[in-house]
Amino acid sequence: MARILTRVTSLGVAVALLSSACSAQPAEDTPDPTASPTVAAAPTPAPPAALPQPEPTPGKGPECPTKRCFSVTVSGDLLVHPQLWDQAADDAAETGKGSLDFEPLLAAQRPYLENSDLGLCHLETPVAPPEGPFSGYPQFNVPPQIVTAAKEVGYQACTTASNHSIDASIEGLLRTLDTLDAAGLGHTGSYATEADAQRILMLETPAARVAVIEATYGLNGLVPDQPWRVDMLDIPTMVAKAEAARAQGADVVIAALHAGDEYASMPNDQQVQTAHALADSGTIDFIYGHHTHSVLPIEKYADTWIVYGLGNGVTELSPTYDVNNEGLTVRAQFAQDDAGAWSVRDLAWVPSMIVRDPYRWCSLAPDQPAGSCAAADVEDAARERTRSVVEAFGAAGEGAHQWDLAAETPAP
User: Fold this and answer.
1) Which CATH number fits domain 57-405: 3.30.565.10, 3.60.21.10, 2.60.40.10, 1.10.1060.10?
2) pTM (2 d.p.)
3) d(CA 26, CA 46)
4) Deepest in the core among 86, 98, 133, 196, taking most CB within 10 A?
5) Out of 13-17, 82-86, 92-96, which region has the weakest mean confidence (pLDDT)?
């Protein structure tokens, strides 16, 4: 498995790429046994030095159509309610892993993340100290063990800008960032210092360097101590960050938008206008969103894939809104063409739902047996609801398809 290195580079600092070339040494003169004894054989001229060629890096996922590919998987909100930390306490009693263990809650995501080069989560809320006190809606302060679990199942980085970013004040925001750092997870969207706010999250794969930027529509009326503390939705600022990322050597730039109307089935005007403007800028390669706690359509606009809403990754079950209990995991495979340009050549999505007794993230992918998550009719309704929304903007006709992991995994 390739080791993925996470690094953060500063805005305004150019990355200098140094290259060296080696030339072949001239071949030594050697006698020609067929030549006349009185005439020396002419030396064989050395061939011109070949330019070094990059190693093929097909990445993880479907077959790579070119020499260089990589894949990125994104998933819905990690939205931890009291019922979920009660479940984590029960699971910890079984696993012996501390006082709270969220890994069983997320464990079914692991195969999808293992079949991707990068995994990006969204941490919706601030985290408290390990022993609490914890709080849920409307101002969250949740167990930090959810961060450890995200790392354990295969995520490399998380976005952190949301309407709940400063629910637990600036102290909670700083604690959250420290917790992500301690777990070895990259992060962007909220910041400990002004210098950090000027840096761009860069994730490195064997094939490419990937920049991630993120912003939120608001902070639930709360006001941060500094304007740079949380990235807010602003098209010129996001484009400037993307341009800076390119200048610093990013091959691909991904943008995440935290916006929309809760429990909606369609994106609102702000989501569409922002996503389209970013795509039109030519600086962004892939766009996805969080916040609505519902799955939203996927659109291909100006040759750029936009996933408007991934729904929830984990959450307490709502008795009122079925869409709250459902989510979407999306993998984008990028391929580099002969001219060096990168683009998404495969977009796969998998529907999911949260189940309880015990609480678990559960895949509704086509390779999962009927009844794996819930009663067959409940699963069918969730699958159809997700499919109809995902494809509402013509995604299927553009090639987006359900993610059948079994079809990609070679038989033993």
Assistant:
1) 3.60.21.10
2) 0.87
3) 5
4) 196
5) 13-17
